Amino acid sequence: MRFLLDTSAAIILRDSVSEADRRLTELASIPALSIITQIELEGGVVAEPLLAAKRRMLLDAMLLQFPVLDFDADCAAAYREIVEARGYSRPKVVDRMVAATALRYGLTVVTANARDFRDVPGLALEVWPSA
Fold it and tell me: Which residues does Mg(2+) bind (predicted)?
């Protein structure tokens, strides 16, 4: 495990089977999800009632395929280091929690929204274009 999917990357994998296969092959490693990403994806299941059943099925399949990493005290310490270096930003809390998880586990964040993570010191990024 060398990669951590953020929500934007997880959505790409959830919504496009052919794109998912291609991108996972490029990673050459089973990526992980942060519990924070799982929480965001759970919200997305119910956000659009007409898609809820399909999204529930797809998310359940993802949760069987990818390990989910907890946000623990070491992640909180990594988060503290991020906000000490860059300042507190309420809109960036979730992204910085994902970044902190990656830093704690020594993983590269896979994202389609690099701007959300570029200011995090020491964070490795793999940027995917939006599908």
Answer: 6, 95
